[in-house]
């Protein structure tokens, strides 16, 4: 269905000495397969997907050698619009995908462009509304939908055309675990019931790898890919989900990819670990830094938060979890004074955030927003650092020192826009830390980060917590919460529904349990690192 | 279409809304009718009545979609227009002769080449009243446009465009949706300024986020263009060259005919040939557009149906326009009372009753049930506000 024949690709204006964006691609994706593209960030996954829909090179420019054929059509001679009936593409940000403004019109848009007869369109829209569970939303403005709903509308809008190939770039990275499962279930159905070929790039491998029929691993920019069955590729892949890490650690063969397979293989491991428990986290008893009492926040006519109680002490790391739209970001915004409480009170470091001048609040609490780019205005890293020093009235060079520590090897002159997702996050973090706030808030920090960037971030945050910072992070990433948080607070519909020790909260509900916990249940192991440490201790004892 | 209606859906579901939605064109005809009426009068009471009629209809029949909120924006814009008009009349003086001096501003002496322009000086009540009425007329026109915007989604109007113009129309609509995105971006970035310890109010804050906002807008438009291309925007069907040439000749010739015909109609000398040339031109242009539509393989999904309600709504607007035009020639003094001497405006009974015809849509148009506010809705409005 999709054939890459000796394909390599170089963007216009790229450094001629640098490796090409893509190189040595030579593989086939047969019809009806779900093919997963994996690799560290910045390795060219999106470019590879673009080459299938024809946007690379027709839209992006650049030089493509070799040949890409989709359903027998050469992308060199067919422009993206001429491939629109065989390839459906959904990019990273569903919002930039929408042309019309209501759900039903959006589903019909692609078919209208292709000239599908009205009766057929009507039928397909109804079918797709049912398939994706969107029937109740059909007349709703798209701008009023939640992230998960928007993602489903975006997928639906390309499905109505009945494409034979579906190309998706990180379809679940912005979604909460429940919504992500919904989307993946739909993809499964398409592959199994309709024989659609799906090509998918994703960082959150723990969510998708067990559904893949084939994995294309891009190890480095321009390096030839490793293509093969998921278990074989995962055995050598630098990016892999916790289940694979655990399998590699325990030496399981064949390597399990799903929790079910791993549980079957894990019986001996569970026995070996019997009697041992992960080190219990001592509750931090530092100074009370964040205190919200019966906090309510209204946004227009909507009550975004109701009666929320939250306390965070110095040295403590708290993960806020809950589905898209549960009020996590609102709570963080209220802690930095972006929203005045409608009722109740907030105090952060002794100050009332919305009544404190920004310049003073900066020294008490810092927030890294969901889109770190929002914090960056200057056109070089150096200028950004200088501005951050001025804003925080810190001695010149303090921000730059932090950047050097968090992000070694980034030159001064580079534009923040040209940094990778993870580098941008580190830069924003350094800027926020320049003022030395004792309270650090992060909104969805691992979105778009690969495993390496994520573990660097985890290490930094651990260090900050150990140095006495209070950290609150809103996240959908259960693995991150299990890895980092002392406490987990679950929000639903603007209310706190669970607040307790991370291990207790995540182990009590399957939706929020990390893979390791699911595999080794009922023993309370949360992360592969914990298991690895315990095994090492066992061996040392023998 | 009726056969395929989702019969299983309970009547309370919004599914009914689309089927019952009024043709967007009907709302525009209604609004333009009221606007025409407003343009024919300077009677403050009549203008107020027109604005009140639009406000009532909007309040009773608009939905809860984002575009439905544009009425308030246009209303504010109208008030600004009135204010600017009055300020200019006060500061620059007015040719209206008046005897009731309100106050006298210090006059700035201007050099000889600026003769005829005055800065400051005597301000008369007559001049202010005249400016007020003039501004109010413009404001009422804006309010009528705002009503059309909030009642009929501009994108739905596209569905009624001829196929040949559709793609240009999409581009226009996409461009129009940019403004709300920009506003949301500015709000988000100003909030982000606060996170960096800078003030989030004031002009400087707005200026400093300008560049990132524009950058973001540009990136988004590029991404949208890519998505549209990948979804088949701009696909063309093969048509024989003869048809292509015929299309070009008919369209260009037709438009020229329309221009010449209009000129003929407006100029006193060409009254004889004006109308036939205009009609011929229109016919040729229509044929050209129809032929041009062949090049685009597009089909339409559930275009709005023009039903009895649409006739009523459009008819009420047209009736208001026609009645006011008639009244303007029948009783010009009532519709356009002289500014000098000052007099309290009188509400002319019959023209006022005619304007009230414009209220018909409040009863004839389907009332969309307001969707319940779900958590999801909360989620996004929140995201936008960030």
What's the overall average pLDDT of chain A, rounded? 89
**First and last CA, distance of chain B:** 41 Å
CATH A-level architecture of the largest domain in chain A: 3-Layer(aba) Sandwich
Derived from helix and strand composition plus strand pairing, the structural class of chain B reads mainly alpha
Q: How much of the sequence of chain A is in beta strands?
A: 15-25%
CATH topology of the largest domain in chain A: Rossmann fold
Pfam family, one (chain B): CbiQ
Transmembrane segments (chain B): 45-62, 74-96, 164-184, 246-265, 271-289, 310-330, 342-364
Subcellular location (chain B): Membrane
Keywords (chain B): Membrane, Transmembrane, Transmembrane helix
Protein model, in words:
The complex is a heterodimer of chains A (542) and B (386). Chain A folds into three domains: 2-238, Rossmann fold; 241-275 and 514-542, no CATH class; 288-513, P-loop containing nucleotide triphosphate hydrolases (Rossmann fold). Helix content of chain A is 37%, strand content 21%. Chain A contains 21 helices and 19 strands. In chain A, the strands form four sheets. Chain A has a six-stranded mixed β-sheet with strand order 6-7-8-3-9-10, sandwiched between helices. In chain A, strand 11 and strand 12 (302-313) form a beta hairpin. In chain A, helix 3 (103-114) crosses helix 4 (118-131) and helix 15 (398-406) runs antiparallel to helix 16. The radius of gyration of chain A is 24 Å and the shape is globular. The N and C termini of chain A lie far apart (54 Å). The model of chain A has no long low-confidence stretch (mean pLDDT 89). Chain B is mainly α and 386 residues long. Chain B folds into two domains: 14-154 and 306-385, no CATH class; 239-295. In chain B, helix 2 (24-39) packs parallel to helix 12 (308-330), helix 3 (44-61) runs parallel beside helix 5 (125-151) and helix 3 (44-61) packs parallel to helix 14 (349-356). The radius of gyration of chain B is 26 Å and the shape is globular. Chains A and B meet through helix 3, helix 4, helix 5, strand 12 and helix 12 of A and helix 1, helix 8, helix 9 and helix 16 of B.
């Amino acid at each position: 269905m999709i054939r890459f024949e000796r394909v390599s690709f170089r963007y216009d204006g790229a450094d001629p000495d640098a490796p090409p964006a893509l190189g040595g691609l030579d593989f086939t994706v047969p019809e009806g397969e779900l093919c997963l593209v994996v690799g560290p960030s910045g390795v060219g996954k999106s470019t590879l997907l673009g080459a299938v829909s024809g946007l690379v090179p027709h839209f992006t420019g650049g030089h493509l050698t070799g040949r890409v054929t989709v359903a027998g059509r050469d992308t060199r001679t067919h422009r993206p619009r001429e491939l629109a009936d065989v390839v459906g593409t959904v990019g990273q940000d569903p919002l930039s995908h929408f042309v019309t403004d209501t759900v039903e019109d959006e589903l019909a848009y692609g078919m209208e462009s292709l000239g599908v007869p009205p009766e057929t369109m009507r039928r397909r829209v109804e079918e797709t509304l049912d398939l994706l569970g969107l029937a109740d939303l059909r007349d709703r403005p798209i701008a009023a939908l939640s992230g998960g709903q928007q993602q489903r509308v975006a997928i639906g809008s390309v499905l109505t055309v009945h494409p034979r190939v579906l190309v998706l770039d990180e379809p679940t990275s912005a979604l909460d675990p429940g919504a992500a499962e919904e989307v993946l279930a739909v993809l499964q159905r398409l592959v199994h019931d309709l024989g659609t070929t799906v090509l998918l790039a994703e960082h959150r491998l723990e969510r998708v790898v067990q559904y893949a029929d084939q994995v294309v691993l891009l190890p480095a920019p321009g390096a030839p890919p490793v293509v093969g069955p998921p278990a074989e590729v995962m055995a050598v892949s630098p990016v892999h989900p916790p289940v694979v890490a655990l399998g590699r650690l325990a030496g399981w063969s064949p390597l399990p990819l799903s929790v079910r397979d791993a549980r079957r293989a894990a019986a001996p491991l569970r026995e070996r670990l019997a009697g041992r428990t992960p080190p219990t986290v001592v509750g931090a008893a530092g100074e009370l830094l964040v205190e919200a009492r019966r906090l309510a926040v209204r946004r227009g006519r909507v009550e975004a938060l109701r009666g929320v109680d939250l306390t965070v002490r110095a040295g403590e790391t708290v993960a806020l979890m809950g589905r898209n739209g549960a009020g996590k970001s609102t709570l963080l915004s209220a802690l930095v004074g972006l929203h005045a409480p409608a009722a109740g009170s907030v105090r952060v470091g002794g100050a009332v955030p919305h009544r404190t001048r920004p310049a003073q609040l900066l020294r008490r609490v810092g927030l890294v927003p969901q889109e770190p780019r929002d914090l960056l205005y200057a056109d070089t890293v150096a200028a950004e650092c200088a501005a951050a020093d001025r804003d925080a009235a810190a001695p010149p060079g303090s921000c730059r020192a932090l950047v050097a520590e968090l992000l070694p090897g980034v030159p001064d002159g580079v534009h923040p826009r040209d940094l990778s997702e993870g580098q941008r996050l580190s830069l924003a973090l350094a800027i926020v830390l320049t003022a030395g706030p004792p309270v650090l808030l992060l909104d969805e920090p691992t979105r778009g980060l690969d495993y390496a960037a994520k573990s660097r971030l985890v290490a930094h945050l651990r260090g900050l917590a150990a140095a006495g910072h209070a950290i609150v992070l809103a996240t959908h990433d259960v693995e991150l919460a299990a890895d980092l948080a002392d406490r987990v607070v679950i929000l639903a519909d603007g209310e706190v529904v669970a607040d307790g020790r991370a291990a207790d909260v995540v182990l009590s509900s399957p939706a929020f349990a990390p893979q390791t916990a699911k595999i080794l249940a009922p023993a309370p192991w949360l992360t592969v690192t914990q298991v690895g440490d315990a095994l090492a201790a066992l061996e040392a004892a023998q | 279409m009726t056969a395929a209606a989702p019969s299983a859906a309970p009547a309370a579901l919004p599914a009914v809304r689309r089927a019952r939605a009024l043709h967007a064109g009907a709302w525009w005809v209604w609004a333009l009718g009221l606007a025409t009426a407003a343009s024919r009068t300077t009677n403050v009471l009549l203008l107020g009545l027109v604005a009140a009629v639009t406000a009532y209809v909007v309040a009773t029949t608009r939905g809860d979609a984002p575009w439905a909120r544009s009425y308030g924006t246009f209303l504010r814009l109208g008030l600004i227009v009135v204010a600017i008009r009055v300020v200019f009349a006060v500061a620059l003086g007015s040719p209206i002769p008046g005897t009731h001096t309100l106050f006298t501003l210090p006059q700035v002496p201007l050099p000889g080449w600026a003769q005829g322009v005055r800065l400051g000086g005597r301000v008369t009540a007559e001049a202010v009243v005249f400016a007020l009425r003039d501004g109010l007329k413009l404001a009422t026109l804006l309010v009528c446009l705002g009503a059309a915007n909030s009642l009929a989604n501009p994108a739905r109007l596209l569905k009624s465009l001829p196929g040949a113009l559709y793609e240009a129309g999409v581009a226009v609509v996409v461009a129009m949706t940019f403004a709300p995105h920009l506003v949301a971006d500015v709000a988000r970035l100003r909030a982000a300024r606060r996170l960096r310890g800078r003030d989030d109010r004031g002009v400087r804050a707005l200026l400093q986020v300008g560049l990132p906002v524009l950058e973001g807008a540009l990136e988004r438009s590029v991404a949208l263009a890519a998505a549209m291309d990948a979804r088949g925007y701009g696909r063309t069907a093969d048509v024989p060259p003869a048809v292509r040439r015929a299309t070009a000749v008919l369209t260009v010739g037709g438009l020229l005919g329309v221009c010449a015909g209009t000129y003929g109609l407006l100029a006193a000398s060409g009254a004889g040939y004006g109308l036939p040339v205009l009609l011929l031109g229109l016919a040729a242009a229509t044929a050209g557009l129809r032929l041009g539509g062949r090049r685009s393989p597009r089909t339409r999904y559930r275009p709005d149906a023009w039903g009895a309600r649409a006739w009523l709504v459009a008819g009420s607007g047209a009736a208001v326009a026609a009645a006011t035009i008639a009244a303007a020639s029948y009783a010009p003094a009532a519709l356009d009372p002289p500014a000098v001497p000052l007099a309290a405006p009188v509400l002319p009974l019959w023209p006022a009753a005619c304007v009230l015809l414009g209220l018909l849509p409040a009863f004839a148009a389907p009332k969309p049930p307001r969707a319940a506010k779900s958590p999801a809705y909360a989620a996004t409005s929140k995201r936008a506000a960030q």
